[in-house]
């Protein structure tokens, strides 16, 4: 080490002995932070506006920085060999054939689903509007399970909209900013979602507990539930459309919980379902 | 004029590093590199050691508020934890005049654990229930402890390069 030498790095002297806590201002700042906590938790002021503006500034800066960092993958890609490209082309052609087949199958299932819905007198919503968004910031902590995505008021996202992937539900929108919004994940302790379980259509409410497992609340005592039963939204309460898959039922000793289909720590892209059940 | 700007940048360098760590936390906080909300304390700890006069308390409070805004915790909680840790640190600082790097590491570990517990306590108090402590709680502490020497090393180089210790 050039500057100062190793000895100065490992064994130094504290020169400045001026303390921060020696003045009354320190007590003032302690009181101020307690005051902030009280006014925020008691909703005395609308902290949403402050949060919205600050998050917009922070995330715009983050986007600006990330967009200017040279992309390593792009440079790597430019050095691909001809063999690699031929192989990739062959693979993509096969995938395209497969996807065409899947498309046909899904169209067939969609028609069948429409017919069945009509039979049940549950007409599908007229406009099915999904917005594909990208996770801008993963703000999951031990106390809050939320993520921030790159669409907000600008894309007509509203509070309460469902967020899902192709595997199933991941949460709902709780805060909408100008160009960003915050999604409360199903694993958060404040998340409560009405569901139905298995082929028996047992009603329950699932609640997160800030871990990977999701608790099941308000179940009747004499209900027999099978392990790996599908758990999906019931649509009760009017926040989510019915039938969105969430996860499988799992058991550990006597503890019954829901294992979400999505790995919530590795989500990159999400579809926000902006067509609300309550509008239909 | 240019000298004034240079001086201003030097004076605000500790604040700049705090802002940088806030962004770094936002960039890397995914999967296994989740440092948590108290990550910024690494820089606060370092600057409190060398140039406390360049780190006003309101900057610490604001950095805490920014963390709260990003991570959706009640505004003021992280700031309060930082202030309490500063209070504890200064009590410790009076006891030892010339601590070695290893002693400082122990102090940082102790303070970080205390800070995490206070943070957990405040959050439990606010939500009126005991929030379960899981493996992530200890993992974040471990991760911050492992990263501490690296951040300390880089900040130490910058400190020497900018002569902040001597001038202020």
Write the layout of secondary structure elements.
The complex is a heterodimer of chains A (280) and B (168).
Chain A: H1 5-10, H2 24-41, H3 47-68, H4 72-77, H5 82-119, E1 130-138, E2 146-149, E3 162-164, E4 169-176, E5 181-185, E6 192-197, E7 202-208, E8 214-217, E9 230-233, E10 245-252, E11 255-260, E12 269-273
Chain B: H1 2-11, H2 13-28, H3 41-50, H4 57-71, H5 77-95, H6 101-126, H7 135-162, H8 164-167
List how many beta strands of chain B DSSP finds: 0
**Helical percentage of chain A:** 25-40%
Percent of residues in helices of chain B comes to over 70%
Mean pLDDT of chain B: 86
* Shape, principal axes of CA atoms of chain A: globular
Give the termini separation of chain B: 20 Å
Description:
The complex is a heterodimer of chains A (280) and B (168). Chain A is an alpha+beta fold and 280 residues long. Chain A has five helices and twelve strands. In chain A, strands 1-2-5-4-3-12 form a six-stranded antiparallel β-barrel. The longest helix of chain A is centred in the middle third of the chain and has 38 residues, at 82-119. The N and C termini of chain A lie far apart (68 Å). The relative contact order of chain A is 0.11. Chain B is mainly α and 168 residues long. In chain B, 76% of the residues lie in helices and 0% in strands. Chain B has eight helices and no strands. In chain B, helix 2 (13-28) runs parallel beside helix 4 (57-71), helix 5 packs antiparallel against helix 6 (101-126) and helix 6 crosses helix 7. The longest helix of chain B is centred in the last third of the chain and has 28 residues, at 135-162. The two termini of chain B are 20 Å apart. Classes of the chains: A alpha+beta (280), B mainly alpha (168). At the A-B interface, helix 1, helix 2 and helix 3 of A face helix 2, helix 3, helix 4, helix 5 and helix 6 of B.
């Amino acid at each position: 080490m050039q500057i100062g030498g190793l000895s100065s790095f490992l064994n130094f002297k504290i020169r400045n002995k001026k303390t921060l806590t020696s003045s009354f201002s320190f007590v003032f700042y302690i009181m101020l932070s307690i005051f902030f906590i009280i006014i925020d938790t008691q909703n005395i002021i609308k902290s949403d506006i402050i949060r919205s503006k600050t998050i917009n500034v922070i995330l715009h800066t983050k986007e600006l920085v990330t967009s200017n960092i040279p992309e390593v993958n792009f440079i790597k890609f430019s050095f691909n060999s001809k063999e690699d490209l031929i192989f990739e082309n062959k693979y993509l052609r096969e995938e395209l054939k497969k996807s065409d087949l899947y498309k046909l199958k899904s169209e067939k299932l969609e028609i069948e689903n429409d017919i069945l819905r009509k039979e049940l007198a549950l007409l599908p919503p007229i406009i099915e509007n999904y917005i594909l968004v990208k996770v801008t910031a993963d703000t999951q902590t031990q106390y809050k399970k939320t993520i921030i995505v790159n669409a907000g008021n600008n894309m007509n996202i509203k509070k309460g909209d469902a967020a899902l992937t192709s595997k199933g539900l991941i949460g709902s929108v709780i805060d909408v900013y100008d160009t960003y919004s915050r999604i409360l994940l199903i694993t958060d302790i404040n998340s409560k979602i009405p569901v139905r379980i298995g082929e028996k259509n047992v009603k329950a409410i699932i609640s997160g507990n800030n871990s990977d497992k999701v608790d099941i609340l308000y179940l009747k005592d004499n209900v027999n539930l099978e392990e790996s039963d599908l758990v999906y939204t019931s649509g009760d309460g009017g926040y989510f459309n019915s039938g969105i898959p969430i996860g499988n039922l799992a058991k550990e000793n006597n503890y019954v919980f829901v294992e979400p289909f999505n790995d919530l720590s590795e989500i990159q892209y999400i579809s926000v379902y902006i067509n609300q059940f309550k509008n239909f | 004029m240019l000298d004034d700007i240079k001086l201003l940048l030097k004076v605000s360098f500790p604040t700049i590093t705090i802002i940088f760590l806030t962004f770094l936390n936002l960039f890397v906080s995914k999967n296994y590199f989740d440092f948590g909300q108290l990550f910024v304390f690494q820089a606060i700890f370092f600057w409190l050691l060398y140039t406390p006069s360049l780190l006003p308390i309101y900057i610490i409070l604001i950095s805490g508020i920014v963390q709260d805004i990003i991570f959706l915790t009640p505004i003021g909680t992280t700031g309060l934890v930082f202030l309490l840790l500063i209070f504890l640190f200064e009590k410790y600082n009076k006891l030892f005049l010339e601590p070695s790097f290893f002693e400082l590491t122990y102090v940082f570990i102790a303070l970080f654990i205390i800070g995490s517990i206070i943070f957990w306590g405040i959050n439990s108090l606010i939500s009126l229930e005991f929030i379960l402590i899981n493996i992530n709680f200890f993992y974040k502490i471990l991760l911050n402890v492992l990263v501490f020497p690296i951040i300390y090393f880089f900040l130490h180089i910058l400190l020497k390069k900018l002569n902040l210790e001597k001038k202020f």
